[in-house]
Design a protein that fits this description.
This protein is mainly α. The protein has one domain: Growth Hormone, Chain: A (Up-down Bundle). The protein has 19 helices and no strands. The protein starts with 17 loop residues before the first helix and ends in a 6-residue tail after the last helix.
């Protein structure tokens, strides 16, 4: 339901402040990409190759996907607040483990455990859906992720600079400090927003088939997954392209790497401003078309012999812009298919999105070899974006056929 209660910062008896929601939504993105400019330096430090070191990204995403299958049912059963607090506490301990790890295997184990911070991102969206109706929830999610988009815009630049000045461990010290801040802010500002389900965890998982049987849920989930898949492919391959193809330093790569976040901020602002007026489905489709169009344009530039770092990273702003339109609206759509399963839908939809992202990130890392250039990555990103357009279009066709958003 929509709440009219006034928001008071650090008062968990009122709805959470936008600052809290932004931090919760942004932590997972920060943890994913702040150290990416340091991947080559980390590979040298551990005495391994880039493909193995890149598992710090793909493995983290894969564990994110697995966890999101459990986050929804647990939060519907026990509440949003305790699940966020426990997930953040485990993340803090795992970050300490990463800092102390002396070999690549130990590091990767603790790195995957760090993925528990995804509870903050998943449940920040569920909290918004708990408090607002679908179209307004899309707008609120847009505003939250607009603020969140500042994180991937500046995190790689900060991470690259920290690594050059103080070594790659400095990025993990920053994660530790922010993890403690997130725990404290959640404790002080976030009250419970969900009516706890009376179903057991087993019964909660038994509700998954209700979502599986909904074509509309799958349409929203796949539109979101393939659109974001273009970005996750970029995450898996951008470090290689920047350093091996364009010869960038860690700090330079950090500055360029945040290019999609510029577009993402604009896209989320547009979602926050216009989703309630234009509607979820059209906004979702517009976003998917922008991602696909941006990748097609980049491919054409490279085929014409005009490829450069500026072209490669410049067109990535369109990937961010499109995702800023698609993800909030597709997410609000997923959560609205079965409102009583909002947490479960958020977790399942996130698992589909992040699981696909993990696969595409690993695939991008495997496809990029010395001498391959940027083209394999661009083609993979375009294919993912094109599939997002197809999924979004099918949602719209089905909605028109059945008479509206709430039809199945």
């Amino acid at each position: 339901m929509q709440t009219q209660t006034a928001v008071r910062f650090l008062d968990r008896t009122t709805p959470p402040h936008i600052v809290t929601l932004v931090l919760l939504a942004g932590m997972s993105a920060l943890v994913m990409n702040i150290f990416i400019p340091s991947l080559h330096a980390m590979a040298d430090w551990y005495g391994t190759d880039y493909g193995v070191m890149q598992l710090a990204v793909a493995g983290y995403l894969a564990m994110n996907a697995v966890l999101q299958l459990f986050i929804g049912p647990f939060s519907d059963r026990y509440g949003r607040r305790p699940v966020i607090l426990w997930g953040t506490a485990i993340f803090i301990l795992a970050t300490v483990g990463c800092l102390l790890a002396q070999d690549i295997t130990t590091f990767l184990v603790f790195r995957m455990i760090q993925s528990t911070i995804v509870v903050a991102m998943v449940l920040s969206r569920a909290v918004v859906r708990d408090l607002f109706p679908p179209d307004q929830a899309a707008s609120m999610i847009g505003y939250v992720t607009m603020g969140m988009s500042i994180v991937p815009m500046i995190a790689p630049a900060v991470g690259g600079a920290l690594s050059e000045m103080m070594g790659w461990h400095a990025t993990f010290w920053l994660m530790l400090v922010l993890g403690v801040l997130t725990f404290w802010l959640t404790w002080r500002d976030l009250g419970e927003t969900a009516a706890r389900s009376e179903l057991s965890i087993g019964r909660q998982f038994a509700e998954y088939p209700e979502l599986f049987r909904s074509p509309r849920f799958w349409g929203y989930a796949l539109a979101c997954a393939f659109s974001s898949g273009a970005f996750f492919s970029y995450v898996g391959g951008a470090s290689f392209v920047g350093t091996e193809v364009f010869g960038m330093s860690q700090s330079e790569l950090g500055l360029y790497f945040g290019a999609p976040a510029i577009g993402y901020a604009l896209g989320n602002f547009a979602s926050g401003r216009y989703s309630a007026r234009v509607g979820l489905n059209p906004m979702m489709l517009y976003g998917a078309l922008i991602v696909a169009g941006g990748m097609l344009a980049s491919i054409l530039f490279f085929l014409a012999g005009l490829g450069s770092a500026m072209v490669f990273f410049g067109f990535m702003t369109l990937v961010g812009l499109g995702n800023g339109l698609t993800i909030p609206n597709a997410t609000a759509g997923m959560l609205s298919v079965r409102p009583h399963l909002a947490g479960t839908a958020s977790g399942l939809g996130g698992a589909i999105m992040i699981g696909g992202g993990a696969a595409l990130s690993a695939l991008a890392g495997a496809m990029l070899q010395p001498g391959s250039g940027a083209m394999p990555l661009l083609l993979l990103m375009f294919l993912s974006a094109a599939l997002s357009v197809v999924a979004a279009a099918l949602v719209i066709v089905r909605a028109k056929r059945l008479g509206g958003l709430d039809a199945e």
